[in-house]
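Appendix B. Chain record.
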Amino acid sequence: MSPSRKHSREEILDAAVATAFDGGLSQLSFGRVARRLGIADRTVVYYFPTIGDLVANVVVVLGLQLQALLEPAFTDGAAEPLELVRRAWPTLAHADVDPTFALFFEANGLAAAGRAPYDAIVPQLVEGWIDWAAGFFTSPESQRRTDAEAAIALIDGLLLLRQLAGPDAATRAATRLTITD
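Structure tokens predicted for this chain:
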């Protein structure tokens, strides 16, 4: 342990994100984050009083990373869901993005199984994604949320297929859905 070195909240959160990438969200703990930094568990707890706080912040960072990744593909408004998915897919269908989506799908699975704190955090994240994506549609205001839900359903379905059946299966599905040529 290095008692003379102070660690900021951001450094601890960065270490928590790296720890999640190394072992998965279900293995994220105060102790693992503290060991990564060579500090006492209580230092992590000082900034993140509960494991729920730590997990929530890690999941938010993942969501923000994904939004930052997609934002360049969404510069122009989309008239319909397939148009937005077509723009997003080339950015998302890469091996370097797979680990982020592996964590995202792990969080989804833990939420679907009713595991705290995921059951509270992930639905909020999904709602945020829907609201964010709705802003990229040029369809009538009353239709934008539904368009965003449809686009996210397609993207998540293709990415889940990519995670579980492999990139070739996801590419074949994207081609069949006319998302790619």
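Further analysis of this model is presented in Appendix C.
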